[in-house]
Design goal:
Blueprint (H helix, E strand, L loop, with lengths): L1 H19 L10 E6 L13 H4 L4 E4 L1 E2 L12 E8 L3 E9 L16 E7 L18 E7 H9 L5 H4 L18 H4 L13 E6 L6 E2 L6 E7 L2 E9 L15 E9 L11 E2 L3 E9 L11 H29 L1
Parallel strand pairs: 1-4, 1-14
Antiparallel strand pairs: 2-4, 3-13, 4-5, 5-11, 6-7, 6-12, 7-8, 8-9, 10-11, 12-13, 12-14
Helix pairs in contact: 1-6
């Protein structure tokens, strides 16, 4: 009786895990499958739309960045998925954050952020997942909650915005590039007329991060119930050096990073993942009903409870037979 109960619970558990795509072994290397979206508009500016609940998401482990100062980060994992329409790739990233931080205008104010990193074309090997290396560069898309706030409401980082009751002397050189060198050189941190919440970056190792202001890289995030979701998007092909190219049937690598502004994380103080696989498939995304996402530990607990109940019932029946016999 015990053996039959155990086999029944195991079969039911395997069926549920197979139907929901849940993995029990965290040591497995995840593959993010980018399915084709047929005839449906992708809600790139609505990360919490029901459409994204139908996209298969995989768990990606994160660890603190410890390769170079300033080191930091404390995230455990994020979830990521992708789709495409044959011309544009969309990448969804979701991670827990107790409080949204959208301000980076003060000395101690830092923005929540997330980044997606790909090997750039022309590399002879898989690059180092922390910023690449001279022989294998990387293309990075970095979204910041503060940049999105600037796009949505307009730039509000002037002295007058931060300290509305302060008195500012006459400044006769307002707007002249020679007095705003960082802005004139294209430093992303100094821009006031943002068209996108995402910075498009190229790197070949620590200290080489270079902005490539390519407006076709987009991203939009939304915080809800203690979790951020961000959707990144970019056309498959762009004629710019250092930018990753995508094609259907191609397989590339992708890594992720997350910054918690409320914890003072910025620059190299971040949580990072190793490279995982991104498989751009020609198979259409199944937009039919799906099981709700439940993490694997819940299935394990349910299985143990069910097995314990079955074994307890069997013992109770045997006890009754022994007493009546």
């Amino acid at each position: 009786m015990r053996r039959a109960a155990a086999l029944g619970v195991s079969a039911a558990l395997a069926a549920v895990l197979s139907a929901t795509g849940t993995r029990l072994a965290s040591s497995q290397v995840p593959t993010i499958a980018a399915f084709r979206v047929e005839g449906a508009a992708v809600p790139a500016r609505d990360p919490w739309a029901r459409f994204w609940d139908r996209v298969p998401l995989v768990d990606v482990a994160l660890s603190a960045q410890t390769a170079t100062p300033p080191m930091g980060g404390r995230r455990l994992s994020l979830r990521a998925g992708a789709v495409h329409d044959g011309e544009t790739l969309y990448v969804l990233v979701e991670w827990p954050d107790a409080r949204p931080d959208r301000d980076a205008s003060g000395l101690r104010a830092f923005s929540d952020a997330a980044a997606v990193q790909f090997p750039a074309p022309g590399g002879q090997r898989i690059p180092a997942f922390c910023m690449g290396d001279p022989g294998a560069t990387v293309n990075i898309w970095q979204w910041r909650a503060a940049w999105q706030a600037d796009v949505r409401r307009g730039f509000q980082g002037t002295v007058e915005d931060l300290y509305p009751r302060a008195v500012v002397d006459l400044y006769p050189f307002r707007g002249e590039d020679v007095f705003y060198p960082a802005r004139a050189l294209g430093n992303p941190l100094s821009q006031v007329d943002r068209a996108s919440a995402v910075d498009n970056l190229v790197a070949a190792g620590f200290g080489t991060l270079t902005p490539d202001p390519f407006p076709a890289v987009e991203g939009w995030g939304a915080w809800r119930d203690g979790r951020w979701r961000v959707v990144f998007s970019r056309p498959f092909s762009v004629a710019r050096e250092g930018n990753v190219q995508f094609h259907v049937f191609d397989r590339t690598d992708v890594a992720f990073a997350v910054w918690d502004g409320g914890a003072g994380e910025r620059d190299g103080m971040k949580s990072v993942s190793a490279f995982t696989a991104l498989d751009v498939r020609d198979e259409p995304l199944d937009l039919g009903p799906r099981f709700p996402y439940w993490p694997a530990p819940y299935f394990v607990v349910l299985a143990v409870l069910a097995l314990s109940g079955a074994l307890g019932a069997a013992d109770l029946r045997r006890g009754r037979r022994w007493r009546t016999g």
